[in-house]
Amino acid sequence: MANNADRSIDIATIQMLDKAAADGVSTAFERSAAMRPCPIGGEGSCCKLCSMGPCRLPAPKNRKETAEEKDNRRGICGATIETIAARNFVRMIAAGASAHSDHGRTVAEAFLKAAKGEGSDFSIVDEQKLLQVALDFGIDPTDKSTQELAIAVGEAALDEWGKREGHLRFLSRAPLKRQQIWKELNCEPRAIDREVVECLHRTHMGVDLDFEHLFQQGARAALADGWGGSMLATELQDIMLGTPVPVRGRVNLGVIDEKQVNIMVHGHEPLLPEMLVVASRDPELLAYAKSKGAEGINLAGICCSANEILMRHGISLAGNMLQQELAVVSGAVEAMVVDVQCIMQSLPKVAECYHTQIISTSDKAKVPGALHIEVDDAAPLSAAKKIVRVAIDKFPERASGKVNIPEHSMDLVAGFSHETINYLLGGLFRASYKPLNDNIINGRIRGVAGVVGCTNPRVKHDSVHTTLVKELIANDVLVIQTGCAAMSCAKLGLMTPESASTTAGPGLAEVCETVGIPPVLHMGSCVDNSRILMAATAMVKEGGLGDDLSDLPVAGAAPEWMSEKAISIGHYFVASGVYTVFGVTWPTLGSEEVTEWLFNGMGELYGGRWAFEPDPHKMAKLMIDHIDGKRKALGLDKAQERVLYDMDMRRELEAV
How far from 184 is each of 178, 180, 181, 216, 462, CA to CA, in Å? Predict the structure, then answer.
């Protein structure tokens, strides 16, 4: 048995890894230890776009490459390593953008059906946000009923995927200077689908062979994700399901309940999980569960589906992506319900050792060995009730000798949408980001960091996230998080208001204690990174911190990233002007020129740039140094004495 304490800092995860080994179950942790990553593919030096290859173009090891060697390092078609590395990177952007944007399209289609009243299980919940989005789309709400306005918004939203002319509507939400930068660089996204398709076309063999020109299209596709598909998904979900407000919950595998029917939701689309919440509280189904010997129905989540129902209902988080197999290993999960993204194909194999039923639900994503239950995205309640019945029927099959539920779970507070932050800082009638800006200006808060992304078994589970975040908040940097990264820090107790006094620097702690917020704010799921864009934009518009996102003392990081979605997210932040650091590995290291352009050259054009640093302490220093550099540029690096004005000084001001 491996020393599983070397694989994770989380006690519940270590306990389940030990149990998996004893039960003879293979997990992602074990498989990653047994399989070495391909060094050539990992650095972007491999091209498999046509059948003349695949072409492998690694650089010489342990010595500097000569100019002649570099010129000769080409594929069969003559493509240089710069072109190959850029094509691979841009294809990752396209895949990541398509994942988030297709999620958004599903939401938009369900939204329009709800607006029209076409047999939908959903309705318009947040009319204030509906009005705001309508105005952003240029829709005149005068003399329109809520239903008429919702239909107009739904139709306008769906047009964003395939519009024939113009640019994405939400670009107008960005600061004016940022909009001008995008216009001058000719990288304003047009239709969302068009940008993904054009990425794939340009990266086809023998099309766009200029790596900087390829990255221009990569920026368009990434921005179409952040300011398009993801932002549309977030806004329409809020209108239809409710905008999150602070809510208490619990996190980690200890939320599994031995006496109840346990149903795990796993994936990224929140429509079915929303109705599973309703079904799990249905009196008839609760009675049915009790007839099978259970005390009730316990719903919990993995990955971003979990974040969605946590924010709106306080439903517990069982864990992040690398804990999906381990939830099954507990032996107490009756059903795991999956849809799209980050689903391990190993789940049905793991479930064979227990009684768990894996249930796939998306027509885009079937899982061999799983029970497939088709779901109508606009009316998923019927399927949700069927799924709960399947889970209840599995409860009597649970083998008590195989049950071992970790005792570890932690409190957290989630639901910090950018609107909620506005209200918390300024109150209901004076909602404003001014208190945040003022506390950055006066130095209590050094700056803001977004720490997001996946978990990756190539590094110690949860360790890089938590080490980085603890370092940041100890240095008075307010941290905002989404996705699996948020769960890593929540498990350590960093998302409770009480943690500020023991983990945050004195300035940040003072602000947190005054307002009653944690030093690390949970802002939602992966698509909700668009909330971070809106929060940063609100900081610019409030004033005092520059006139563009690139002026702000902020930085971003994905310390344990693993998916193409993370590359798309990172690139739309960089293209929006934000310094962004990734850990684990970097996919263009095979080309020194491309890597240099992303790390420095891109900053000259966009104001934001990439960085790569696997060590969390060094990563924190990079981010803090960047924040301090922005503070200096804004003139905030020196403490300013408080001046008490006498009458003569006041008269002088009035004369000016």
Answer: 10, 6, 5, 12, 41
Least confident of 206-215, 290-299, 633-642: 633-642
pLDDT value at 643 more than 70: no
> Token pair of 20, please?
């998996």
Summarised one tens digit per residue, pLDDT across range 200-257 is 999 999 999 999 999 999 999 999 999 999 999 999 999 999 999 999 999 999 999 9
Measure the N-to-C terminal CA separation of the chain; round to a whole number of Å: 77
- Give the Å distances, CA to CA, from 34 to 26, 38, 321, 348, 611: 11, 13, 19, 21, 29
Structure tokens at 452: 């997001």
The token duo for 563 is: 């998916």
CA distance 359 to 368: 10
133 neighbors 143 (Cβ within 8 angstroms): no
Instruction: Mark out the alpha helices in 460-528 (DSSP H runs).
Output: 463-474, 483-491, 500-503, 506-515
Angle in degrees, 0-180, between the axes of helices 81-116 and 146-162, rounded to the nearest 10? 160
Residues 220 and 229: their CA atoms lie apart, in Å, by 12
**Residues belonging to the chain:** 656
Q: Let me know: does 403 contact 259? Beta carbons within 8 Å.
A: no
Cα separation, 446 vs 631, in Å, equals 8
Look up residue 501 and give its amino acid: S
pLDDT tens column, 91-122: 999 999 999 999 999 999 999 999 999 999 99
Judged on CB neighbours under 10 Å (0-12, 13-18, 19+), 402 is middle
48, two tokens: 């498999």
